[in-house]
Amino acid sequence: MSRRPVVTHQQGFFLLGSGQPMALVSAGVPAADALEHASCLIASITDLAAAMGDGGLSSGGAFAIQQLAETAQALIDAAAIGCGSEAHRL
């Protein structure tokens, strides 16, 4: 029996006021690759948040944290949908 590879489902993020996504996670990306990239983004978020807590980050750092977090969320959601998970709706 051949197993179907687990790949991402198209997932929009950075929603504009109209509800249109400014960016997309492409469909068909191996889910493991999307999750690995999300993990790297979350590590960056952790580093930025620690710097912000120490007072070593400008106000633009909060924007960077938000953008990185939204991108990581989209990657995780796209992989979860590709796996057939309902967890992305929580």
Mind sketching the topology for me?
Blueprint: E1 11-15, E2 21-25, H1 31-53, H2 60-82
Antiparallel strand pairs: 1-2
Helix pairs in contact: 1-2
The gist of it:
The protein is built from two helices and two strands; from the N terminus they run E-E-H-H. By secondary structure, it is mainly alpha-helical.
Question: How would you describe what is shown here?
Answer:
The structure is a single chain. The protein is mainly alpha-helical and 90 residues long. Helix content is 51%, strand content 11%. Strands 1-2 form a two-stranded antiparallel sheet. Strand 1 (11-15) and strand 2 form a beta hairpin. The mean pLDDT is 89.
Beginning-to-end CA distance, first to last residue? 33 Å
Largest sheet: 2 strands, antiparallel
Q: Catalogue the unreliable spans.
A: none
Indicate the proportion of strand residues. Answer: 5-15%
Overall helicity: 40-55%
Report the total helices.
2
User: Strands of the largest sheet, in order across it?
Assistant: 1-2
Oligomer status: single chain
How many beta-strand segments? 2
- The shape, in one word, is flat
By helix and strand content, what is the structural category? mainly alpha
Report the mean per-residue pLDDT as an integer: 89
Written as H for each helix and E for each strand, in order along the chain, the element string is EEHH
Radius of gyration: 15 Å
